Amino acid sequence: MPEPVPFLDLAAQQKRLGPALRERLDRVLAHCRFVMGPEVTELEDRLARYGGARHAVGVSSGTDALLAVLMGEEIGPGMAVFLPAFTYTATAEVVLLLGAVPVFVDVDPQTFQISLSSLAQRLADVRQVGQLIPKAIIGVDLFGQPAPWDELNDFALNEGLTLIADCAQSFGASYKGRKLGHEAKATTLSFFPSKPLGGYGDGGAILTDDDEKAALYRSLRSHGEGRQRYEVQRIGLNARLDSLQAAVLLSKMDVFEEELKRREAVACAYDAGLPSLIRPPVRVLDSQSAWAVYCVTLPSRTLRDSLRDCLSEADIATAIYYPKPLHHQPAYQAQHDGVALPVAEALGEQVLALPIHPDLSDEAVGRVLAVTGQWAERQDEP
Ligand SMILES: *Cc1c(COP(=O)(O)O)cnc(C)c1O
């Protein structure tokens, strides 16, 4: 039996990181400043430089990063926040937690990124009903490819909306020759273990060029602390980043570029080798993906499920992101105005994510291609 092909291999990565990782962790164990220790500041400096932003503020998760940014924009009841229907629940959840309403927008059938024409339509819908004040857009770089940031910025500026970038899946990607990190007023990152830059637990960060907002996020992540300790300036969160997580992430930053290159090489091998029945991801022009997810599309749900079963029998792990668009999820039904978002609805039935990670061997990639090739040949038989 050939080796199973896992979806993610954090054990192999740990081995590759070697003693450097242990040394960093030992340093934290020695100084014992477990919350907001020197590793957090060092990581923030590195993240800011990497993403081309003036400030990086480490927080406890990508979700808390979004929450703090929305709190910083004073998002609350009676306000509408526009976001794609085809994303992870965290993007929408934070809007509801603050009492505002997420307005779901359809996605582009080619790139799966937010659709500008649907966005314009949804804004018109909200204005026509007249019950909510349109406030913000959360752009999401789905699967590691950039959202159409230039168009989103133009749109937000024309319509008087604040643009926020959810880069949970795309840190490391680039757009028009620049690393992502400063495409919007604030950019949020996630270091959940399965993200391209993942820690050993939860973590996140906010990138911004705005000095005042950066100070505000620092206050918000620490219970709304003022200039002095125990001065409570505002209602905040307990959303700090741990020193141990920061130490892990610093180690991973050392190999991040190499890992991104490996992800790209795997993506290229899949692009070139997949049978024609399986559509590879369409690349966003003028950009480089971080390949958080390599998502293929099948012509129907039956074929998608059949391919998934076939890969599973060959011990090749796959995943479905996302089986159901957010506006069809029970938690968001009451908020949604009932408008159909046909692309997001169809994608849930047709997409399949193949394994892509920096420790995926050429042999494993070859096995995925062999099994998909054999599967496709069987579909052609009468
Ligand atoms: C993972 C993810 C988040 C949330 O990040 P956490 O660190 O898990 O809280 C938000 N948005 C998107 C698009 C994500 O993929």
From TrEMBL:
GO terms for molecular function: transaminase activity. It comes from the Bacteria. The keyword Metal-binding does not apply. Keywords: Aminotransferase, Pyridoxal phosphate, Transferase. Signal peptide: none annotated. The keyword Transferase applies. SUPFAM superfamilies: PLP-dependent transferases (SSF53383). Belongs to the DegT/DnrJ/EryC1 family. This is DegT/DnrJ/EryC1/StrS family aminotransferase. It comes from Bombella pluederhausensis.
